[in-house]
Design a protein that fits this description.
With about 350 residues, the chain is mainly beta. It folds into two domains: about 240 residues, Sulfite Oxidase, Chain A, domain 2; about 110 residues, Sandwich (Immunoglobulin-like). The protein contains four helices and 24 strands. The protein binds ligand MTE and molybdenum atom. The site of molybdenum atom has 6 residues, from loops. The site of the ligand Nc1nc2c(c(=O)[nH]1)N[C@H]1C(S)=C(S)[C@@H](COP(=O)(O)O)O[C@H]1N2 has 18 residues, from strand 3 and strand 8.
């Protein structure tokens, strides 16, 4: 399969620019950078890389100011990982919820290269009482939803200290073998494999280590949900990607020949486990059939799957679905959990097609 069919991206929001990968064009394991989705909260910042510094400050013994050439001279690490926006597939929600109406393409799989975050944090020497590591981008604005600050804020997100020291979290300056593009965070972005995209802060300018849990706007107001703890509702940040599979082809509303063989295919991914199987239904979820699974050496990459569907001779309208199960026995739910508000859309999604 080639990248030749990578089509133009879908414009979901034009200002700030939010672009979707047309998921029905899925053909290569790595999503070509020019087809990769772009999710921005504010206008893309302009960065002069000569003047740019990465500042590491807060609860550290040795605050650092790193130049771009200094980062490039450090030991490199490469990881292939899915990046999925927590709002991917929002258009499938009923009743409708606010936010960009993403279809299936606010997700992609790319190879990221850069410096391990742990390398830099070790150099800066975290204080004993460090709790969270906050990543601030260079883009700022006033966010959309209430309660919102009245003055512009930088896009920022944190991860707990223990997570920040894990072996695969990257300060990336390359994507798919080329320098990071401006849209994807040049000169430097965070990549948190296995977590939804909001954690992977673009256009990094500061890393602030805090001695308290960071409760910023994109941590506790947006990209957060209500969870009951000890019978009390508390606001929690969205973190790990949920198990999910999606159909690339046939695309919704396709007309398929009766009495033929139709290849149903797509991708499946998960935050921390491994995909064990993908099943396909061609009758709206009544019966499920095992799909053939591809493979990947990278635990955070997606895998492809396919299923040969023998269509009946009788013309009919039907709904295609796919459902992944991981090695821990968890499966995608068949229905939507409303507590998830407008994010983590990981239930089985219906694709309507016609057989004629
Ligand atoms: N600085 C900054 N980083 C950001 C964002 C942003 O708006 N500003 N959006 C986040 C969200 S919600 C997602 S899903 C990913 C998208 O990364 P991409 O645009 O490279 O696909 O970036 C994350 N990092
Ligand atoms: Mo996102």
């Amino acid at each position: 399969m080639t990248n030749a069919q990578a089509a133009t991206k879908i414009v979901r929001v034009s200002d700030p620019v939010n672009l979707e990968f047309p998921f029905e064009t899925l053909s290569s394991d790595l999503t070509p950078t020019d087809a990769f989705y772009v999710r921005n909260h504010f206008s893309q910042p302009e960065i002069n890389v000569q003047a740019w510094r990465l500042s590491i400050e807060g609860a550290v013994e040795k605050p650092l100011q790193l130049t771009f050439p200094e980062l490039l001279s450090m030991p490199t690490h490469t990881v292939t990982s899915v990046l999925e926006c927590a709002g991917n597939s929002r258009v499938f929600l009923s009743p409708k919820v606010a936010g960009a109406q993403w279809g299936l393409g606010a997700v992609g799989n790319a190879e990221w290269k850069g410096v391990l975050l742990s390398t830099i944090l070790e150099r800066a020497c975290l204080a004993e009482d460090a709790v969270d590591v906050v990543f601030e981008g260079a883009d700022k604005g006033v966010p959309d939803e209430q309660p919102k600050p009245c003055n512009p804020i930088y896009y920022a997100r944190s991860i707990p200290k223990s997570k920040a020291l894990e072996a695969n979290i990257l300060l990336a300056y390359e994507m798919n073998g080329a320098p990071l593009s401006e849209a994807h965070g040049f000169p430097l972005r965070l990549i948190v494999p296995g977590w939804y995209g909001m954690a992977s802060v673009k256009w990094l300018q500061r890393i602030v280590v805090t001695e308290y849990p960071y409760d910023g706007y994109f941590q506790k107001i947006d990209y957060a949900f209500w969870e009951e703890r000890d019978g009390l509702p508390v606001r929690q940040p969205i973190t790990e990607i949920e198990l999910k599979s999606q159909i690339a082809q046939p695309a919704a509303h396709s007309v398929i020949d009766a009495n033929s063989t139709c290849l149903i295919y797509g991708a499946a991914w998960t935050g921390s486990s491994k995909i064990a199987k993908v099943e396909v239904s061609v009758d709206g979820g009544k019966e499920w059939h095992l799909a053939n699974l591809g493979e990947s050496d990278n635990p955070h990459a997606w895998i492809f799957w396919h299923y040969q569907w023998k269509t009946s001779a009788t013309p009919h309208d039907t709904i295609l679905m796919c459902r992944a199960t991981d090695t821990e026995g968890r499966s995608q739910p068949l229905t939507r959990d409303l507590n998830k508000e407008s994010y983590r859309i990981s239930h089985t999604l219906p694709i309507s097609v016609q057989v004629r």
